[in-house]
Amino acid sequence: MIKSDWYKKIWTLEAKKYSWVETTEGDVDFIIKALGLTGKERILDLACGFGRHSLSLARRGFSVTGVDITKEFIEDAKKEAKSNSLEVQFILADIRELDYKNEFDVVINISDGAIGYLENDEENLKIFDVIANSLRAGGKHLMEICSAEHAAKYLPKQSWYIGSNAVSLAEFIWDAKSRRMISKGYGITYGEIAQKPEPTDETSVQLYSKDELEKILQQRHMKIIGTYADYQGNEATDKQMRTIVCSEKYI
Length: 251
Prior knowledge:
single chain, Rossmann fold, 6 helices, 32% strand, globular
């Protein structure tokens, strides 16, 4: 059984080997284009992991603060920033505990950014409170999350992704009653003797429909300004598991 606080314990730097890490620079290209960024914005990266997007944005001249709950990730991100002479602030914290007020032009939650990870609905909504509170009026938010519409129609399923260093495998189950997606991930690294892989992670994530997100954001003086299926800017439909949602704070 997956423990309710799974998100505090499963992450390690093995994640740096995952095939989807190779898309980081393309992800950032899209973020800049989709949000119309100029390079002068102050950006908050929530659940930043080992800082791959924060570091890329900093290389491009943005002022970036990255926050994550995993000590190993934050220590590695700080080391990378220092070795590359990048001015990035990395903070070890539970993102629910942040108390920023109207300080950032942009907030991002990439690869879920912990949205839906928490113990119950009330706790999950606290992340949206942090997002809205941290943004200045006119500030923009981008989140990459899994789609409840897709889960309800197409799960259970398996997927795989071939990268240049490894193959990433995953299986997904939809619990309609709790509206949570249960997943297991596996990795096979090239150049090593093949073994039957054990799950590298097992997660339980609350998913949201577009209508639910619109309501949640509206309650926090935010509105959706664009939805996409991927970092190539294709139109979001229920046929894709992941959805990128861009929104703006209007007060």
